[in-house]
Amino acid sequence: MRLSIVAFLAASLAACRDQGPGALEVLVTEGDGQMARIGTPLPEPVAVTVLDGDGRPLAGQQVMWRADAGGHIAPLSTRTDADGVSRARWILGTVEGVRTATASLPGAAPAVVTAVAEPADVLLFDQPATLALATYDGSGQVVHPDFAATPPTMFASGYHLAITPYPFGDARRENPSLFGGRRFDTWGLDPGAPNPVVLPRAGYLSDPDLVYQPDARELWLYYRQVTDRNVVHLIRSTDGIAWSAPVDVVSGPNHDVVSPSVVRRGPGDWWMWSVRSGTLGCSAPSTTVDVRRSMDGITWSDPKTADLTAGALWPWHIDVEWIPSRNEFWALYNAKTDTGCTTPAIYLATSTDGLTWKTVERPVLMKGRIPAFQDIVYRSTFAYDPTTDAVTFWYSGARFESGNYVWSAAVERRHRAELFIGFSRIQDGTLFTPPPAPLTDWP
User: Fold this and answer.
1) Does residue 106 sit in the same domain as residue 159?
2) Do 375 and 352 contact (CB within 8 A), yes or no?
3) Of 73, 99, 118, which residue is a domain's last?
4) Which pLDDT band, with edges at 50, 70 and 90, does 338 fall under?
């Protein structure tokens, strides 16, 4: 691998060399862009390759390493090896953020390696942790999380998690609640915040979805009212304490507007995805994902059908985000079989136009990953950080205990590259073990 990297660099330099005969070049060839907690070593060594004026690797060159912000670099060899490579271990200093280290030698411009130093209490990767939430009913059982961030000086908290209590499947308690936090794993009520945010006028409420509207400097909360119809309401707040009266924005027959997910991509560019299953609800043999457009987030177009089908499993609840740094939409959805909604897996899909989707074959989460999700994984939400190239997920799910499903939420941090491995039709629902009991009432 190192020889192929050097050969590529040599070919590139030969095509566009302007530094003159005998000039040296130091190029970063390994370990750029890693991240670790402050005061800890990066996971992999960093390395540079020294080339001569003809693009050939130079052995025996003494490379000087230096790290900023109190970091420490220990060269693994004092001189470049036969491939012209010098490697070092980099221990980050105590300053958070993007950090740099330089590798230099006389007669060449220094090469700059970057890394991200994260806080000491940042979430570890691939270690889901259950969340403790003080629900208004006292149960702590929750479903349907949805995450949004706002500028740090606007609200008491910069992070927001909408979620609904669902104690032992009691839909009467399933009213949108809003928790705030400054960390992804610790949530509480902001001072003076209502709990829950809204109560039903009839039927029950579910499926909250948060959007920050920067033009109005408001947090918008969409949610679904379920009677003999589905009605999506919108309430707005500038502080998370006082909320506007509900406005009806979308409606349809019962189970035709399930799990609305709203994205504001820019001024006048609003999107809403929802799941349509018909009168049978999650007992329907299949579902359809609808897409609506809006200029203002209030008045919505008629739906179009999205191409988000997945073999023998079907989307049941969905969360969509626009990822500007990658110029695409990502959808996170729990998938149901053709017989019920004790959904066994959660999947990611991508789209450039919001209508045609590609699903990643390997699930993000399967039931049984942690004891709290032994029997069901359900509607979940996520946030992507392009600086660290990491995705944070907030899951919901349940375990069957003493004749009831017990609902909870958890948070997990994952590497993007590890998540997006292979696109295909997702697996056959018969591969999953059957649930211990059907959901007689489902959120």
Assistant:
1) no
2) no
3) 118
4) confident
